[in-house]
């Protein structure tokens, strides 16, 4: 007489569910797992059949997880973090050095103006650590584990993340260093046109402020980043709004007025609440929290 045994979910099953929940689509889940989307589809269908329950609702927008899928993904995430912590314990050398890869996401402005200058001391203290830097204007998801740490300028940091407020990012109008030529008493605003990242960052505080208070000003140069605004100003192409930290060590930029309160944005260093026990992430997070300075 055959006795039907109850189906037991395996670690590989949980890995697939977690990848789909994080990726949002079968194709993205496949990319994360190193297989094609059809393989993920078959694995999910087989798992749903064995469970006798639906895990994902398919739509044009992607695969929407059911409560069961979310529950399984949450547990899979815990297992993943425990494994990472265990590997860190095994790999940690007796001399206290930490190994592993930490993924950090931010913007190019914050990366070049604030973060890179403080990474050298971390590299000296922890030479075995590897850091992957994603400097794009699109925020990677810490919840989906696209990144381990994020440095973001935001007035509303996500409630589900652990954060440290580094300080306020102050913004002011800057122009190029005076070249000594005759200006006949004209101000920078009279002599120069504007440089701004309107199309690339339409909701940036500097863009919103200028469009609100100076709607008749049309920037002659539209660039893709705040870093490009700084370089264009330094080359004499115009005036523009810049964060003070980006110009503090430059002698080719001149601050033309007081910081603009409306453009001020808090800078936050963020991580997932469960990552504090992972040595490699905790080490990088603590170093940045201690050394990042806006003034």
Automatic annotation (TrEMBL):
Origin superkingdom: Bacteria
Keywords carried by this UniProt record: DNA-binding, Transcription, Transcription regulation
Protein known as: LysR family transcriptional regulator
Entry keyword annotation includes Transcription regulation: yes
Database matches in InterPro entries: LTTR, LysR_HTH_N, LysR_subst-bd, WH-like_DNA-bd_sf, WH_DNA-bd_sf
Domain HTH lysR-type: 9-66
PANTHER family assigned to the protein according to its UniProt record, in alphabetical order: TRANSCRIPTIONAL REGULATOR, TRANSCRIPTIONAL REGULATORY PROTEIN
Pfam families noted in UniProt: HTH_1 (PF00126), LysR_substrate (PF03466)
Keyword Transcription belongs to the record: yes
Family membership noted in the UniProt record: Belongs to the LysR transcriptional regulatory family.
């Amino acid at each position: 007489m055959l006795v039907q045994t109850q189906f037991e979910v395996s670690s590989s099953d949980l890995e697939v569910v977690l990848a789909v929940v994080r990726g949002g689509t079968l194709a993205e889940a496949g990319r994360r797992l190193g297989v094609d989307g059809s393989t993920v589809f078959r694995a999910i269908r087989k798992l749903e059949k064995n469970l006798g329950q639906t895990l994902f609702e398919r739509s044009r927008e992607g695969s929407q997880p059911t409560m069961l899928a979310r529950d399984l993904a949450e547990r899979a995430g815990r297992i993943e973090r425990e494994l990472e912590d265990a590997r860190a314990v095994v790999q940690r050398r007796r001399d206290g050095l930490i190994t592993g890869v930490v993924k950090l996401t931010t913007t190019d402005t914050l990366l070049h103006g604030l973060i890179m200058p403080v990474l050298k001391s971390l590299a000296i203290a922890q030479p075995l650590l590897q850091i992957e830097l994603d400097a794009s204007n699109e925020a990677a998801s810490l919840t989906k584990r696209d990144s381990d740490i994020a440095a973001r300028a935001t007035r509303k940091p996500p409630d589900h993340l652990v954060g440290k407020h580094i300080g306020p990012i102050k913004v002011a109008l800057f122009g190029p260093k005076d070249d000594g030529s005759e200006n006949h008493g004209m101000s920078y605003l009279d002599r120069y046109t504007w440089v701004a990242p309107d199309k690339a960052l339409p909701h940036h505080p500097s863009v919103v402020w200028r469009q609100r208070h100076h709607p008749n000003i049309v920037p002659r140069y539209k660039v893709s980043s705040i870093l490009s605004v700084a370089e264009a100003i330094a080359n004499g192409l115009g005036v523009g709004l810049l964060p003070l930290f980006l110009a503090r060590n430059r002698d080719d930029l001149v601050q033309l007025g007081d910081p603009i309160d409306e453009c001020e944005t808090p800078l936050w260093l963020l991580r997932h609440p469960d990552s504090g026990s992972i040595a490699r992430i905790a080490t990088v997070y603590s170093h940045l929290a201690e050394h990042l300075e806006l003034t």
